[in-house]
């Protein structure tokens, strides 16, 4: 379902430069520190241009996570910073981080004590992942897809739109945000773990108990590229319907193109909010993509546009 017809977007070449930079950062689950440093530098540099200068909370009590508070917040945006990838085991074996889905021959990159790595992904006869490289890679080294960013007038294709596009959305909303919290979380792709203490912090400090999950969903037989941002009515978890209906009504009222997603699998930071001891309402709201968790993730720019527009509306009116 869509609330309004979509229009083609004419973007200048610089519109997605930030997204390109985000997608190139090596930050799989457990190794989010490079993304944390990038975001802290970006916020420090750009916040003087934002409508409200935020307070930024980070450091040892937050591990690699970041909380950015604007005005008098009612609603929080949760965007996870980590990606899927691989960990080098013994010999030339690889263990998955999260659920990567790549074909043999995919280029993987990383760095160990011996230098930079650009190697090839292989599979044995039992479909165990291996690497092919000119030397042994230090065990414990993480490898991610080699960044290849492709942009046309209508689409973007690159590894790690999940969830660098969710971060991009949060940073675009931050430019005009007056009241709200943006939470950059860790470990989402590999089981989570940071959201419980982040939820505790924002609830006990500001009584925030409404959340939007700024993440990327999958194009399916009922959710299509180019038809608007997806509002998820459920995945493996079920949010409170009255809260989801508020979001749908605001999308309708503001004529933001959207689609309704109903799935029985998949999860997000919303799961950890739902099982937390705090009374959070949450909803997953994100652009759909093709080829999830592959090196070829692909989104439509109309869906990115409607995602940013809907989040801007929701942070004002929820």
Can you walk through the features of this model?
By secondary structure, the chain is α/β, with parallel strands linked by helices. The chain has helices spanning 17-23, 33-46, 161-174, 195-206, 241-253, 269-274, 301-317, and strands at 55-57, 66-70, 75-80, 85-88, 94-97, 107-112, 115-123, 129-132, 142-145, 150-151, 155-157, 180-185, 210-213, 217-218, 229-234, 258-262, 281-286, 288-289, 298-300. The strands form four sheets. An eight-stranded mixed beta sheet has the order 1-2-12-3-13-17-15-16, sandwiched between helices. A six-stranded antiparallel beta sheet has the order 5-4-9-6-7-8, with no helix packed on it. The model is unreliable at 1-13 (pLDDT under 50).
Could you name the CATH class of the largest domain? Alpha Beta
N to C succession of SSEs: HHEEEEEEEEEEEHEHEEEHEHEEEH
Specify the helix fraction band: 25-40%
State Rg.
Answer: 19 Å
CATH superfamily of the largest domain: Zn peptidases
Largest sheet properties: 8 strands, mixed
**Structural category:** alpha/beta
Low-confidence stretches: 1-13
Oligomer: single chain
Mean pLDDT: 94
Cα(first) to Cα(last) distance is 21 Å
Principal-axes shape call: globular
- What percentage of the residues does DSSP assign to strands (E)? 25-35%
Please state the second-level CATH architecture of the largest domain: 3-Layer(aba) Sandwich
Number of continuous helical runs: 7
Number of domains: 2
**CATH level 3 topology of the largest domain:** Aminopeptidase
Task: Tally the beta strands.
Answer: 19
